[in-house]
Amino acid sequence: MAREKKQYPTEKELAILKVLWASGPATVRQVNDEIAKEQKTGYTTTLKFMQIMTEKGLLIRDDAPFKHIYKPAISEEKTQKQIVVNMLDKVFAGSAGKLVMQALSAKQVSPEELKKIRQLLDKMEE
Amino acid sequence: MAREKKQYPTEKELAILKVLWASGPATVRQVNDEIAKEQKTGYTTTLKFMQIMTEKGLLIRDDAPFKHIYKPAISEEKTQKQIVVNMLDKVFAGSAGKLVMQALSAKQVSPEELKKIRQLLDKMEE
DNA sequence: ATATTTATACGAAACTCTTCGTAATTTCGT
DNA sequence: ACGAAATTACGAAGAGTTTCGTATAAATAT
Fold first, then answer.
1. Does residue A65 surpass a pLDDT of 80?
2. pTM, to two decimals
3. Which letter does DSSP use for residue B5 in this model?
4. Which residues touch strand D (CB under 7 A)?
5. Mean pLDDT score of chain B
6. Nearest by CB to A87, which of B39, B83, B114?
7. Residues on chain B touching A107 (C-beta within 8 angstroms)
8. Residue B12 has pLDDT above 90, yes or no
């Protein structure tokens, strides 16, 4: 039946990456404590995921004695790009403009970020 | 084990919605023909999905004699918004600005769209 | 009107994601 | 050094997604 491989992280994987992005390299315990705030999750569930993600190449494990330390194998920006590119195709019929409009109207953007966006727009018009 | 309900469509469901968004109400045959271009899919697979999506309330079915006609139950924009909002939280730590930057640098945007984006930015700075 | 083609309904299998229990191992407090 | 507590490894099951085969019904062509 050969399904197509996903080229982006699943929900739970994202939740784990989110923690690691925010707090830097961390142990399973630390990650689980964070995740559990949003949605209660058993320790071994998180452990299992982080093991699998390491096998998949999504995480890198530092086998420190006793406590293993994990960190993302791929940068936050690169992962975000993967997801945006995929979504552009699957959800926005390839129109980055539409996606931008939706993002802007979905949530307040800080003045600094608005400025950065304008600068990028300027640079693009050449 | 009670998993959390997804509040957005799955991959395949999106593929079907994408076709219906692009071509308007359509039969299973029409949808399947389109989908098969990107990734070969059996007719009954698409049929089954469209039946399930109808049960879920994602599609509306017009039981025309012989050929059933399907259309999305939720507008393209609303579905896109759902996905963007979810992604902002899960992938971009709530920063719409980051998402916008990624979208803009991921793909070329047409001049007209750039203009619309600028207008929206102007309106937001008040 | 009968055979062929096209459509729908249904059920189950294959695969993936998510969850956790249990056992084995290691550390820490006393 | 010994028991309690924390960590890791492993396996399996529940839940959701995706796939398709087969049966049945409806339409079309000849």
1. no
2. 0.92
3. P
4. A 1, 3-4, 27-29, 43-44, 47-48, 51, 66-68; B 1-3, 5-6, 10-13, 39, 41-42, 44-45, 48-49, 52, 65-66
5. 93
6. B83
7. 85, 88, 94, 96
8. yes
User: Considering CB atoms only, which of B99, B105, B109 is closest to A103?
Assistant: B99
The pLDDT of B40-63, averaged and rounded, is: 96
Burial B67-99, CB ≥16 within 10 A → b, else e: eeebebbeebeebbbbbbbebbebbbeebbbbb
DSSP string, B63-91: --SSS-EEEESS-HHHHHHHHHHHHHHHH
Distance from C-alpha of B98 to C-alpha of B103, rounded to nearest angstrom: 9
Query: Contact at 8 Å (CB) between B39 and A4?
Result: yes
What is the rounded average pLDDT of the residues B106-114?
91
- List the structure tokens of A36: 């559990």
Integer Cα distance of B123 and A59 in angstroms: 42
Compare A49 and B123 and report the one with higher pLDDT.
A49
Q: Do B101 and A120 touch (CB under 8 A)?
A: yes
In the structure, what pLDDT confidence band is assigned to residue B2 with cuts at 50, 70 and 90? low
Helix or strand run (H / E) with residue A69: strand A69-72
Q: Do A96 and B109 touch (CB under 8 A)?
A: yes
Contact yes or no for B97 and A114 at CB 8 A: yes
